[in-house]
DNA sequence: GTTGTGATGCTCT
DNA sequence: GAGCATCACAACA
């Protein structure tokens, strides 16, 4: 039996959920205080048939087993000394996920600055950077249902993007079948989107309606 | 402002 | 021992 919260993360295409997450509030109620921000960039990973997915070809290891869990579970993994977070989507056993790639800081910016030792957009304009900004530097919450975890998406708090932009995913192997698939979504013009160039940012509205 | 490159920690083969 | 769903900084314009 799925909760209402879990149902948000299943029963419709992963790419649709990924776009629906843009503008939602990501919060972490951690030991140093509560921090959070608006999600401005996501990527969809489509499971066993997606060459860029950790579950490609049905790969099922101890490391990535959380992907096979319930919708709304956290999948936290480490890559090159950095931590990233996925939201598990689709029903249990269907290993699809949505990578949260960037947030616009909204709650407790001073603490995020301190966590990052950086200023400006560099605080959270990338998947590893946003986790550092929140203060999550371990896999302890891997596999937990977000609903019961200190790291969660507040579905009832949201802003509306003026326009959603689409592109190939970042950092995946371009030579493989899905290397250039258009599975990355972001708030057009938001300066905190990874790789966003200054001349393409909308500094008035940050791309929100 | 933009581009290139080296450091990085851990898992799986 | 390879291969990463990355980041920071130096170099160039």
TrEMBL record:
Broadest EC class assigned to this enzyme: hydrolase
Any Pfam family hit: Pur_DNA_glyco
Keyword DNA damage: yes
Highest taxon of the lineage: Bacteria
GO molecular function, one term: DNA binding
Keywords per UniProt: DNA damage, DNA repair, Hydrolase
Organism from which the protein derives: Limosilactobacillus secaliphilus
Keyword DNA repair listed: yes
GO aspect biological process, one term: base-excision repair
Name of the protein described by the UniProt record: Putative 3-methyladenine DNA glycosylase
Sequence similarity: Belongs to the DNA glycosylase MPG family.
EC number assigned by the record: 3.2.2.-
Entry-linked InterPro entries: Formyl_transferase-like_C_sf, MPG, MPG_sf
NCBIfam families given in the database record: 3mg
